[in-house]
Amino acid sequence: MNEIITLAHGSGGETTHRLLSEEIAVLYASEAQWDDAAVLAAHERIAVTTDSFVVSPLEFPGGDIGKLAATGTINDLVVRGARPAYMTVGLIIEEGLPLSVLRTVLRSLRSTCDEAGAAVVAGDTKVVERGSGDGLFINTTGIGVISAAEPPGAGRVAPQDQVIVSGYLGDHGVAILAAREDLPLQTPIESDCAPLHDLAHCMLQAGGEGVHAMRDPTRGGLAAVLNEIAEYAGVGMNVDAQAIPVRPQVMATSEILGLDPLHLANEGKLVAFCSSQSAPKVLQAARRHPLGRHSTIIGEVTPGPETRVTVRTSLGTTRVLSMPAGELLPRIC
Amino acid sequence: MNEIITLAHGSGGETTHRLLSEEIAVLYASEAQWDDAAVLAAHERIAVTTDSFVVSPLEFPGGDIGKLAATGTINDLVVRGARPAYMTVGLIIEEGLPLSVLRTVLRSLRSTCDEAGAAVVAGDTKVVERGSGDGLFINTTGIGVISAAEPPGAGRVAPQDQVIVSGYLGDHGVAILAAREDLPLQTPIESDCAPLHDLAHCMLQAGGEGVHAMRDPTRGGLAAVLNEIAEYAGVGMNVDAQAIPVRPQVMATSEILGLDPLHLANEGKLVAFCSSQSAPKVLQAARRHPLGRHSTIIGEVTPGPETRVTVRTSLGTTRVLSMPAGELLPRIC
To answer: Which of B9, B50, B89, B176 to mutate to test binding with chain A, by most A CBs within 10 Å of its CB?
Structure first.
């Protein structure tokens, strides 16, 4: 097989067939899938989510597009209280992609799925001509199994809920930006890209139905999550700037670039909205987990109808934290 | 809102939010989805399939990428005997796409899903900068419900099975090629793009468990389907060239371009492998359906272990019908 992807790899003929059986097959635990749809045992309630990944560059400190494609979808399932069970993988490959890159990415994707207990059950591979894509785009769709009677959901967020963040914010955004722009950072920042099935499970075990909602603050960052939930649930939010964990290097890099770390993407963090009764237990459970060691309560939900998100600054003043507007960082995930 | 897509539409901030609520929302039957994953009632067994669509041009005689993205995934479910229930939609939009095109495509996608009874339950929208994509790529993942005890599957194909094709082959391939190359066809050919849930249902009702397998011969055409099934089931196939329905204009265009109509993509045809007992009933049911009027038996499955697909030509000779090799037609679906 040639060592780069050619249009023939996307033809649906023999070359495609070889690509699937020799390379893409690494995604599947069982034999290659020959039928047009996989047949699965399901359960009473399932959670479904889909995400396309167009991150640039394809490999970055702390991960690559394969790890990200698994992580992003796994995390969208776990924030609904679902156990990741199945995954589909759609690849759009640009002609000329080195096969070595494809191999690395597929292996990352598979090993991240394995880690979270999700089996890849269906896939699709397309090739577009040079200049009509950018290396590799990946779509993953995840199916999870829900066992809780009342799974966490944005609609359950209520005044007095405590807002917990599971660690440092903005690492993924800065890591991608630094890799893309070749920024000379004194201390290199790695993406926080990680599947959160186990952290979420521990937090839900500790807080039970007191965990009203969870989100992973990806594109648009914490600011987008807080504003979206406030709008949906018809509540306000008030958070404390000094309580929000941001690494000094991330803060410094953001300041230089004129970015707000609360707008930056994260790929390994949870934001949980918990009843005030359950919050201390959820926090304790999160801190015991390796991915939640730096968890902290950053603020609380306030009564509506004013669905404003405000931040208490270190100067004691209060500012509105608005939804990020404009271009921000394209192709961050 | 600007009338073209900008990078800000993919930022995850306010502009994204507006795009989702003002444009993408048309996909959803219920309110816009605010949580990261949709929670669904499932059933004992579900079928799952995923497909990315990169067709060029985005609009063509007989359809557009939206109709195709719904149809392709619906048809992959129905060939497994599944009733389409849920759909996810992942959009990768190139900066500069006119919003009018996006609107048309989303409406086609939604109405095709409605026709087949599939609800769009989750979605994702990414924007890539100009030159890193080509207008619009769409991933759809479909979830279907299986009720038959033994759904059709490639592994059930056996010697003596009759091979039924549900109508004229090659229409989609020629329609796309003509639209792309601006070929001056005397009689314009339309894509056969159509959701086959109802046709498949009628055929399965008529043939029951005698319908051993079904496939939709998309990329790679009939030749790819016959070769894949032969290899998987360890059988041979023998088909009759004169029995295979191909429109004269499609045959003529293929000959001029040096293409084999049996390698061309179809987006509204079924190939069914049926026990010899059930085949006449399945054929009759197919012919009664508007999308199966030209159904016909084109050949039969022969014993393995020689997994060769052969065609009896009009001259009485026999040739091997091999898996399509090489480039064929890129971006046909």
So the answer is: B50
Nearest CA of chain A to the CA of B186: how many Å? 28
CB B118 within 8 A of CB B62: no
> CA neighbours within 13 Å on the CB side: how many for B52?
30
Contact predicate B138/B65, CB 8 Å: yes
Q: Are residue B98 and residue B138 in the same domain, yes or no?
A: yes
Measured in angstroms, the CA of A92 and the nearest CA of chain B are apart by 7
Last residue of a domain, one of B116, B146, B176: B146
User: DSSP letter string over B26-89?
Assistant: GG-SSSPP-SSSEEEE--SEEEEEEEEE--SSSEETTEEHHHHHHHHHHHHHHTTTEEEEEEEE
Cα Rg of chain B, angstroms? 21
Q: Is residue A325 part of a domain?
A: no
**A11/B228 touch (CB, cutoff 8 Å), yes or no:** no
Contacts of A181 (CB under 8 A, 6+ apart): none
Q: Do B327 and A47 touch (CB under 8 A)?
A: no
Interface test with A, best of B138, B139, B231 (most A CBs within 10 A): B139
Question: For residue A232, what are its two tokens?
Answer: 């949906």
Structure tokens at B236: 């041979």
Residues of B in contact with A42 (CB under 8 A): 42-46
Query: A32, A21, A51, A142: which is closest to A88 by C-alpha?
Result: A142
For A247-279, write each residue's pLDDT tens digit.
999 999 999 888 999 999 999 999 999 999 999
Q: Do residues A47 and A82 touch, judged by C-beta distance below 8 A?
A: yes
- What pTM was estimated for this model as a whole? 0.92
Q: What is the CATH number of the domain that holds A112?
A: 3.30.1330.10
Q: Identify each DSSP E strand in A217-295 by its residue range.
A: 236-240, 271-274
- What is the interface pTM, i.e. ipTM, of the complex? 0.92
pLDDT tens digits for range A136-195:
999 999 999 988 888 899 999 999 999 999 999 999 999 999 998 888 777 889 999 999
Helix (H) or strand (E) holding A301, with range, is strand A296-302
What residues of chain A lie within 8 A of the CB of B141, using their CB?
Answer: 50, 88, 90, 122, 139, 141
The residue segments making up the domain with residue A229 are 154-320
* Boundary (domain end) residue, out of B112, B146, B180: B146
The letter for the amino acid at B324 is P
